[in-house]
Amino acid sequence: MSGYILAIDQGTTSTRSMIFDHEMHIVGVAQQEFTQHFPDSGWVEHDADEIWQSVVSTIEKAIAAAKIRMSDVTAIGITNQRETVVVWDRATGKPAHRAIVWQDRRTARFCDELKQKGLEPLFTQKTGLLLDPYFSGTKLSWLLKNVDALKARAEKGEICFGTVDSWLIYKLTGGKVHATDATNASRTLIYDIGENRFDDELLSILEIPRAMLPEVKDCADDFGITDPAILGAAIPILGVAGDQQAAVIGNACFEPGMMKSTYGTGCFALLNTGPDRVASSNRLLTTIAYRMNGETTYALEGSIFIAGAAVQWLRDQMGFVKVASETDALAGKADPHQRVYLVPAFTGLGAPHWDADARGAIFGLTRGTGPAEFARAVLESVAYQTHDLLEAMKKDWNGSASRTVLRVDGGMVASDWTMQRLADILAAPVDRPVVLETTVLGAAWLAGSRAGLWPDQKGFAATWKRDRRFEPEMEAGEREAAIVGWQDSVSRCLTNR
Ligand SMILES: Nc1ncnc2c1ncn2[C@@H]1O[C@H](COP(=O)(O)OP(=O)(O)O)[C@@H](O)[C@H]1O
Ligand SMILES: O=P(O)(O)OC[C@H](O)CO
């Protein structure tokens, strides 16, 4: 059977479009970075129009690279940076403000105020999230309070709110569809993940008009048809998921107890808990892993804000390496007798600490410490942070996570040294798949299976292939001492103890 799938991965720093053939092989790729705006300390914004242009341009280039025509594409899947807030004029499609990015901390004080009013348990019980600026709700509330006339216009239905997926669906369909999927909705802080609907009580607390919200659909669903005036063909959009959830799907973590961890800019570990909505007692998030055929599958999530970004810091700010891949060999040369720890709290700490005011620090420096020890500390910090997440997951989920093999993906898993250290620190095997582009594969599978072109869930899971399993090799005493040193370092950085 012929027919191609176009998958769009709209990430935090770049947009990627990929064309897959009917055998699920990648036959065309295009990637484009776009501008990061930092208008104030802790603020991060994107130009939604620039994002849209990057999507159109990478689609065209990917189509050209695959040597096909747009009309050869059977269906489109979209995956995206989550939580980022876009508001636009329903009639003209013009953004009403720059998008406020998930990393933006401007609503930290507002979150504190809501916590002081004792509202966090209510938000957590309904949304599975915490009152942290990371999520969309308080950012949207900020826009409604600070952009002239926005609230009045939103109440009249003239303004649309959406995460980046909604924005792209709206643009691709020529303004005909204002929708999102359940995974993206589950990150907004206004969506009740048990009832599967936006919640009036939370909307009222955050003063968000219902008239501006998108329709929420399953991940494999009908999200409209592209406007031929834009891409030259009318193609159905059949799959949508937030990028970390798409990685769960792409890594075929369909069974309860299966877990993936993605190492890109940040690191996000998700444990499939099946139809059970597990409430965390250890500051993890409860979120929607996917919703298919109206049935919700939940996950426990641990979110780490800085993973590969620390490697970029080593390269760009410290100048210790020229390219990220050099860190692998450099870390291997580090003096085994020095115990140097980097706590990469550059933008605060995420799970399980949720300390927006914590800042990074390095411990254990000696006269002999050099670039190799820094490189090792950077790569190890990823392993230690994952360890902390998994410990929290074990406590939350009857110890079952301890029996799980971790499936990994993302740019950083190319580093063998990091993957070996991860297995050592976790004292558990780590499986690296052949296809590292699991996020985009997940979005493609949602669309491809809905189109009847790709295998069903079981058939797709059977195609997952391991590139390499990293088995733990570190001696138990050494591991325990290393973890104690890490935990001591983290405790010295926390401001919310
Ligand atoms: N060989 C490597 N060793 C360590 N880190 C790497 C390596 N290759 C890429 N990275 C890191 O991985 C990140 C890129 O991964 P990617 O999955 O593309 O991220 P994102 O989707 O968040 O932009 C960068 O932060 C980069 O520093
Ligand atoms: O775009 P990424 O890969 O950095 O992922 C961002 C996450 O979705 C934020 O929650």
UniProtKB/TrEMBL annotation:
Binding site for ATP: T12, T13, S14, T265, G308, Q312, G411
Regulation: Inhibited by fructose 1,6-bisphosphate (FBP).
Binding site for ADP: T12, R16, T265, G308, G411
InterPro entries found in the cross-reference section: ATPase_NBD, Carb_kinase_FGGY, Carb_kinase_FGGY_CS, FGGY_C, FGGY_N, Glycerol_kin
E.C. code: 2.7.1.30
Pathways per UniProt: Polyol metabolism; glycerol degradation via glycerol kinase pathway; sn-glycerol 3-phosphate from glycerol: step 1/1
Any GO BP: glycerol catabolic process
Record carries keyword Ion transport: no
Gene Ontology molecular functions: ATP binding; glycerol kinase activity
Domain (Carbohydrate kinase FGGY C-terminal): residue spans on this chain: 260-448
Annotated SUPFAM superfamilies: Actin-like ATPase domain (SSF53067)
Role of this protein: Key enzyme in the regulation of glycerol uptake and metabolism. Catalyzes the phosphorylation of glycerol to yield sn-glycerol 3-phosphate.
Annotated protein name in UniProt: Glycerol kinase
Organism: Peteryoungia ipomoeae
